[in-house]
Amino acid sequence: MRRVVRQSKFRHVFGQAVKNDQCYDDIRVSRVTWDSSFCAVNPRFVAIIIEASGGGAFLVLPLHKTGRIDKSYPTVCGHTGPVLDIDWCPHNDQVIASGSEDCTVMVWQIPENGLTLSLTEPVVILEGHSKRVGIVAWHPTARNVLLSAGCDNAIIIWNVGTGEALINLDDMHSDMIYNVSWNRNGSLICTASKDKKVRVIDPRKQEIVAEKEKAHEGARPMRAIFLADGNVFTTGFSRMSERQLALWNPKNMEEPIALHEMDTSNGVLLPFYDPDTSIIYLCGKGDSSIRYFEITDESPYVHYLNTFSSKEPQRGMGYMPKRGLDVNKCEIARFFKLHERKCEPIIMTVPRKSDLFQDDLYPDTAGPEAALEAEEWFEGKNADPILISLKHGYIPGKNRDLKVVKKNILDSKPAANKKCDLITVPKKTADPASVQNEAKLDEILKEIKSIKDTICNQDERISKLEQQMAKIAA
Q1: Average pLDDT over residues 394-405
Q2: Nearest CA-CA partner of 275 in 87, 158, 141, 146
Q3: Total domain count for the chain?
Q4: CATH of the domain at 166
Q5: Which label site among 49, 67, 98, 426 has the fewest CB atoms less than 10 Å from its CB?
Q6: Are residues 343 and 22 in contact, defined by beta-carbon separation less than 8 angstroms?
Q7: Pick the residue with more confidence: 3 or 454?
C-alpha cells in the first residue's frame, strides 16, 4: 500500500513570475535552431544569446538592469557565426565562455559593473573543433578547466589558463552529442548522444566507464545529468513520442531505477538540478510550464511535486546558482525565462511563517572558491566543491582577472607531456618563411579585428536609425 500523502518540505513549493517592471524587455532572443538554454545566470549578471547580423552575439546585463533594454546596448560580439551555448565560470562571476557555429570557443572577461562598450576581444580563443561547437561546460571544482563538445562528435577539455587543449575525446561518440554533464567533483562526465546511448566517461583515463544503449527509444533529443549521489538522470522520448524521465545507477545500467512517462509534447526537456534540495526542474523548450520533482531513496524515487504554468511558451531558460538567491524570502530557485522579446525571472519559494533563516532549506552550498588548480586536476587529483553557508546571505567578493599564459612552444621539451597522452603541439622551427608567414598572419588578424569593430559600430548605427524611423512612424 502506498501512503496517500508523502511527507516532504517541498510539497508546497510555488512559482511566481516577477512584475513586468522587473523583467528585461525588448531583447531579440536568438532564433537559431539549437537545443541549448540560450541563457546563463550568476549572482551578478544575466547573459542571453541574441539575434545578430554578421556573426554571433550575446547580451550581458547586470541583474539590476531591468526594464527596456536599448537596442544600442553593448554586446559581446567576437564570434563570426551564431553563438550556440554560453556558460558562466563557477569560480569567477566575471568570466563567461561561449561556443559558436564558427567552430571556436571564446572566453570573455566582463568588466565589474557590466559592459559600457561592445566587447569584440576575448581573453582567449580556443581552437580545436572542426565543426560548430554547441556545448560549453566549466569544471565544477577545478579552476580554469573548460569542456567543449562540437558537431564533430569530439569532446575537448581545455586548460583556459594556458589556452591549451589537454584532453581530446574524439573517438567515443559515433553521432551528435546532445549534452554533457560533470559529476559533483568533476572526476566523471556523462553524455547523451543521437545514437540513443547514455555514456559515463572518465575523461582523464579516456575510457567509457558505463553505457546504456537505447536509454530512451524515441528519435528526438535526450538529456543526461549527474546527480549528487552519482546516479544519472535522463530525459528523452519513448517510441510513441511520449516524453520520459528516468533514473539510472552507473554501476548497473541494465534497467533504470525509475522510468516515468509524462506527456506527448515534442519540446526537448531541459533538466535543472539543485543538489542541495535534490529537486529537479524540467523546462520543455516551447512549453509554457516548469515541472519539478524530488529525488529520494524511497520508491518511486522520482516524486512529482508540482507544475508552474504560464501563458507564454519559453524559448530558453537560465538557472541561478544557489548563492544568488534571497534566503530571507525562502527562495529555493530562480529561473530566467526567455520569451521572443523579453526575459522574465520566475521565483520558486517554500512558504514559511517564520522570518528566521531556514537552515533545512539552505544546507551549505557550493561557493565560488575553486578546490583545485587546473594542473592538479589534469594530474589526477579530485576534490569536492568548497561549501559556504548562506546564513547571512551571499556577498560577492572581488574576482581576480583571468590571466592566460600561453606556453612558448619553442621552449617546450618533447618529453614533458608523455604522462597521459596529452595533445602535443608540433614543434616549430624558426625558419625565415615561417617568420614571414607569422607577420602575414598578424596582418590578417589585425584586419579581421578592424572589420569586426566596424560591423559592431554599423550594428549600433543601424539600431539607432531604426529607433529614429520608429519615432517618425509613431
Answers
A1: 77
A2: 141
A3: 1
A4: 2.130.10.10
A5: 426
A6: no
A7: 454
